[in-house]
Amino acid sequence: MAQVKNRLTPFFENITFDREDNELILNFGPQHPSAHGQLRLMLHLQQEQIVKAHPDVGYLHRGMEKMAENMIYNEFMPTTDRMDYIASSSNNYGFALAVEKLIGLEVPRRAKVIRMLLLEINRLMSHLFWLATTALDIGAMTVFLFAFREREYLMDIIEGYCGARLTHAAIRIGGVPLDIQGDFLHQLKVFLNKLPQNIKDYEDLLESNRIWRMRMEEVGVVPTEMALSWGCTGPMLRASGVAWDIRKEEPYELYDEVEFNVPWSDKGDNFARYRIYMEEMRESAKILYQCMEMYEKCQKDGQTELMAHAPKYISAPKLDIMTQNYSLMQHFVLVTQGMRPPVGEVYVPTESPKGELGFYINSQGGPYPYRLKLRAPSFWHTGILTDLLPGHYIPDVVSIIGTTNIVFGEVDR
Amino acid sequence: MRVYKPKNDVQAKAYYTDRYYVAPQVPKQEIASDEVFAADLETIKTKFEVKEAYIQVEQMVIYINPHDIYGLLELMRDELEYTQLSEMSAIDWLAKDNTFEIFYQMLSMTKRKRIRIKYFIQNGQAVDSVEKLFRSADWSEREMYDMFGIEANGHPFMKRILMPYDWQGHPLLKTYPLEGDEFAAWYEVDKIYGKEARDIIGPELRDTARVDRYDSKRFARLGFEVPKGTEITEDMESTVQEYQEDGGVFLIRKVDKESSKVIDDPQR
User: Fold this and answer.
1) pLDDT band for position A14 (50/70/90)?
2) N or C of chain B: less Cβ packing under 10 Å?
3) Is the CB of residue B15 less than 8 Å away from at least one CB of chain A?
4) What would the CATH number be for the domain defined by B28-153?
5) Any idea which architecture A64-308+391-412 has in CATH?
6) Could B57 and A101 be called an inter-chain contact, meaning their C-beta atoms sit closer than 8 Å?
7) Which residues pair with A348 in a beta bridge?
8) How far apart are CA A265 and CA A285, in angstroms?
9) Interface subset of B 205-244, CB within 8 angstroms of A
10) Could you tell me if the ipTM is greater than 0.85?
């Protein structure tokens, strides 16, 4: 059957494109290479200047919160990968931590160290990806190729650990499924030893570049009040004069045992955000070195446990399942029916590469969460465009979207 | 006899629960066990009625009256230094007592504390918008309206945000099935071709793993391609495809699988 032309009439929000005044309406997206996904912006323009911006999201909406209500807790883990797919282990971790807090589980130390290794590798991957794509948007092709090369090495390392490159599902509720394999640590060390030089290369390419500076400095200034009011977190908030990092202020895992700094700036512009991403990569490398030491110490002390011991909620190790009848029975029940956390609710924030990633879980004692709310940082970093873009010019839109580092898997969930 | 399935909650249910199973509770602490929370609660109590308050998993939870929310958040922002509204949304209790539970997740960066403010509203009742206090509520209230149909009074742009503007139904209600209702199933067909095309086009194939090796119109046979529309039978001879001509193509060398090597060390 032939498609009836003009049947699909576009629906715009009370927008008439024929206007009496000088205002022009520009429909930016939803398919736009610098929108980093499916973002549609309705921009009202006076000449080249934006007077009103209306971000429209939802093109990647898959109803994850709805899916969560219909899945047992362990089943939901791979779905969290698809939120911020640039750094998927951090989503896995946020969810696992929320359920662990709900149950009241303590994770073995070796698992904590491996989790921290994964989290910081993910942060590096995310920041490298950010640098690559933003630089490409501004027109710096070389930085894009360099940063993607380094990201590729990290993805190889992650692939060596869990077999996946983007959607890792590398963390379980109660610990991690696998110990570090093969030459993971060696490869990571090789990578980290080269990283300072790599970061310096990017900086040399960008910071003395007139175009980069002109498009970054004094562009997209987010005042502190606006950042707080819009619920901005992560680098967006730290660039606006609030040195707030959840790893430092409300430490989880072993972040209170490692030493690192929280870079922040009071400028609030694109360039400040760019500097913070670069400095955070250095800090992540610092944390990774310390984690590797911690891991070697775990090995020396003979701490081999990877999953917490909680027979009501977590399956026993494979050896027990294969040899002991009761462990097998429990494993069967946990896989087919799912764990039943206690009645109660919990909101757990973690510092994902993009900002505060929070999981609110309301459990009614059943194997399915009664309500699960995903608090994704990018959602508000997209919303702030409403207030941030007016006054800027069209080319600034691209660089501002770039530095807000939004990922649409996370915005639309 | 048919198994009874409640209409007011069509979400997945545990298929077996022991008759004597009593679900444990996440422990709640007294407010007095935390000085900062106790002081905050005292200030709040001087101006607003607090129905219930406790600490659960390091965060204070307080229940208030629905009409107090604007004033309370203003007090918390200006006097108690809770400068960020991290999150707000609703929980559907329609099946239980025809109410929604609304929660606001507040963060104080100076005190490093988080408070969750909650209240109940009746089905059909609107909430007061706090968009003027926290701009982040602009989008979260729109999301709440989109997902639950709860409207916010005084919101500047109460429109759907994630679902299409012409969508029917509110997806996060417990009465809304996971796989969508009839409107959802035919949304694209109705919109593009019209309702009369439903019979011709047929329902959407929801099995993402479905592969029909005899259907050469909709499925590629990777490495075994045949012209589109070819009738494929079981006794058909193999149609293995080689991609590079023996004579060679200009500028392209044929890959020799024997002499190719795998790079062991990716970082070299």
Assistant:
1) low
2) N
3) yes
4) 3.30.460.80
5) Orthogonal Bundle (1.10)
6) yes
7) A359
8) 20
9) none
10) yes
